[in-house]
Amino acid sequence: xxxxxxxxxxxxxxxxxxxxxxxxxxPWAAGVLPGCLGRATRLARFITGEWKEYLAWARxxxxxxSGDIFGRVLERSPADGVTAEAVGRVLERFTGRQWQVPPMTxxxxxxxxxxxxLARRGLEVEREARxxxxxxxxxxxxxxxxxxxxxxxxxxxxxxGTYIRTLVTDVGAALGCGATLAFLLRTAVGAFRQSAALTxxxxxxxxxxxxxxxxxxxxxRALSAFPPVEVREGAVRAVAGGAVLYPAGVRAAPxxxxxxxxxxxxxxxxxxxxAQAARxxxxxxxxxxxxxxxxxx
Length: 297
Fold this sequence. Notes:
Layout: H1 3-13, E1 19-21, E2 30-31, E3 35-37, E4 51-60, E5 62-64, E6 73-76, H2 84-93, E7 96-100, E8 109-110, E9 113-114, H3 115-120, E10 130-143, E11 151-159, H4 164-175, E12 179-189, E13 192-193, H5 200-208, H6 212-215, H7 219-222, E14 228-231, H8 236-240, E15 250-252, E16 262-267, E17 270-282, E18 285-295
Parallel strand pairs: 2-12, 14-16
Antiparallel strand pairs: 1-3, 4-11, 4-12, 5-6, 7-10, 8-9, 10-11, 12-13, 14-15, 16-17, 17-18
């Protein structure tokens, strides 16, 4: 099931409700896919989370053209001499800031065409390496070490934009035997964790009982990573119209907000908008203002 299929299923369960998702997950992978309903579809870019967490089974001794077991096998190498200790030592080298070349199976575009579309036509194009951050990378389990087809289970905490199949391929190259991704489970996207996620079946039951609001996350909570700025009653209408919020309309704000900081603008009755702090200079000195990015009322 593709990410698009998931959204289509949600729309069927909730007729007349706008629905979207915050980032794709491979059709054969499993795990967390944050979705947005109604007005929250306008917030997707703010709730993707800087960090993602995965469990990944890496099959050693195999290299494929797609970086996963569904691709064409390019090379097979003996991996019976690989130990868990050797894997652990190699993983240490991949922790921290890394440069990754996106796989041809990615949705990144080259000349306006997604890489995966080019790959389906048998084409391979040059891709620029991109910076990613691996906060944590460790081995949790191993199967068949010393045998003909060993696998290791990796736990990965990484920045958004990290390609796990590329990471597995690179780890395999460093081990000297090659590796390909056998299974992928995304366990967290930012603050959204698998333990609190809903299945489509659970959403269907909630919809039948008219309890969708009870089992989903509010917009304010979804944006909790952004500091709140309280708006005075007299400035609510201006903010709702997309106007810049000036100090006179601010009831309370955290100290030390830097220019560019994204914040929540909250009125007496709840969330009004997502805005960005900016510094304006004038004859009387500088002042911090808030420019709405998305108005939600």
